[in-house]
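Budget justification, computational time. The allocation requested in the original proposal was used primarily to generate structure tokens for proteins on the priority list. As evidence of use, we reproduce two of the resulting records. The first is shown immediately below.
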Amino acid sequence: MISLKRLHARALGAGMIILAATPLAVVTPAAATEVLATVNGVNITDDDLRIASEDLGDSVPRQLDAKGKRQYLLDYLIDGTLVAQQGLKDKLDQGPDFARQLAYYRSKVLMEAVLTKVARDAVTPENLKKTYDQAAKAQKPEEEIHARHILVATLPEAEAVEKRLKAGEDFAKIAKELSKDTGSDGGDLGWFTREKVVPEFSNAAFTLKVGEISKPVKSEFGWHVIQVLGTRQTQFPPFDQIKGQVTSYVVQKAQTEFVEGLRKDAKIVRLDAAPTPPAPVPDKK
């Protein structure tokens, strides 16, 4: 569900609404509602269970299987109904604070229902394909390299590594023996573009030929000896690989434009004027 706080999050200085993607997998209630339990004569149905599941989301313990999750949600609803019934007995629904909160949550549920509909209407095969094609056309190919490195603390250490490599010793073996970068397997950094690494590293790596060993390169992390294993041009990912990202973008864009349209046509009067800054204190001479 869309969070009200996220609905009103705005990019500073631009007034742009940023909306999280509304869930699209909305379960259609069955024609006949099944009663799962009664609490002092009040029915708890499978529809209630569905709504509770959507509301609680990730707060339901993940280790539960389907049956355990169902039992957890049903117990939650039973306990909630009991506590709510006690609240009615204590007449806690008759105060002004309760009425304000009830109005707030009514608006919140309506907002979520409208934004869910906007999201569902926006996510059509044609719209997803159009958005993907526009992004693919705008993405220019970049040079990408596959490289590995050995990271050491001092220049003399790096020069010794360079000498051993150029004498034919195994790169991965020396990396495991000496490199400070223990996060890479044998120094292998995989494929990357220029902006993915620090400038000193990229400036050296992207001038190397495949198989070539670099001279020691200094960066904020220490001294690197680099070898390039391959080069290629980046390819835009296939649609199926990034369909989720495309869908999220389409939903966010549709919701943002929808709310912006409502704001444009509405008469909004804000009474929370920014506080007047305090007068400057005169210099004491």
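The second record produced under the same allocation is shown here.
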Amino acid sequence: MKKECIFIDVFTDTPYAGNQLAVFPNGSGLSAEQMQNLAKEINYPETTFVFDADKSKADFAVRIFTVSRELPFAGHPTLGTAYSIWELFSIWTDKKNVLRLETKVGVIPLQKQEDAIWMTQNEPEFFDQHTDRQQIADLFDLSADEITEELPVEEVSTGNRMLIIPVKTLDAMQRAQGNVGNLRKFFDKTLIGPYLFSLETVNPGAKVHTRFFAPHIGILEDPATGSAAGPLTAYLLKHNVFGNEFEIVNEQGIEMGRPSKILMRGRKKDNKYTVQIGGKCAYAGRGEFEI
């Protein structure tokens, strides 16, 4: 059995930047073990597999794998899979302006707006706040006083539960490195990973600078993390960092040499949150695997 896949870069319009993704347009006939082996062989941050879905609920179903495990949801694989269905594959005859992808956290609607694709993530859930800043700083070989005191370290989910960590300066962000041992002890299957952010940025057009470390799930560092940008959007709304409605640019991946541009749109009204994450994609190539 042969299976085709394509390779794209997400949250960029330039090949070989942004976050890498492999997409298999036809996952039928593959077991979970085979999908995991393919993801491990390709060795990208994530690999996705597209399946038919109940058309009354979704247009397609998608399963998402890192090199070490399956994820219930992830941002850049969902957005990149949507781009592939719209622009590269011939598997969707309808090709409407809204595409519904079924993930293990529910159906995610995606919409084409001008030259970007936007996904609407789930209503946010807010969990524990962590007050031991030294423990948090030790995850990244930073000092406790480099973690902002004016904003909390907080667990937030819009599909995946992330730890949002405010860092004071761009310099501290650039010096941060994932302490593998400490990260593996701190995070579990419930809490996916840490998303560091600073209001100091490299590019003047960006409003936040971010980094994501997750060696405990096979990702040493991620160049663009849409499933963490969603929780960050909700966090910024909750704590009124940019007001009750905003659309901003999040820069990520600069330290890795894979600069990414994540569009973040948030709105809070009557204690209801709207969280949308957008971006562009670039085609990088295609391949075929013998199963």
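A brief technical remark on that second record: The chain has six helices and 18 strands.
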